[in-house]
Hints:
The chain is mainly alpha-helical. It has one domain (2-85): Rossmann fold. It is built from five helices and two strands, in the order H-H-H-E-H-E-H. The radius of gyration is 13 Å and the shape is globular.
Amino acid sequence: xxxxxxxxxxxxxxxxxxxxxxxxxxxxxxxxxxxxxxxxxxxxxxxxxxxxxxxxxxxxxxxxxxxxxxxxxxxxxxxxxxxxxx
Length: 86
């Protein structure tokens, strides 16, 4: 039941979630801070799994920086959205 609620929520808000991290300085700071922390644990190059990556905001950043990225998400709408961006 909970999984369906989460899946239904994110299916309805793919565009909103994509825009969320860049809609204002506060949310951009969230993206930058998360990215700063993530970098500490990333290999210099190679393959990265973005599990639960939603519409692929971090997936796209990882790919832009040369990583081979696999995006997993429980919401097919998020995966389709990400495919169109990458």
